[in-house]
Amino acid sequence: MQNVPVFVKIDNYKEVLNIIDVMKKKIKDTKQSLAKIRELKAQEEQEIIEWERNVNEITKRLVFIDAAFFDND
Question: Angle at CA 17, nearest 5°, toward 26 and 23?
Answer without folding.
Answer: 10
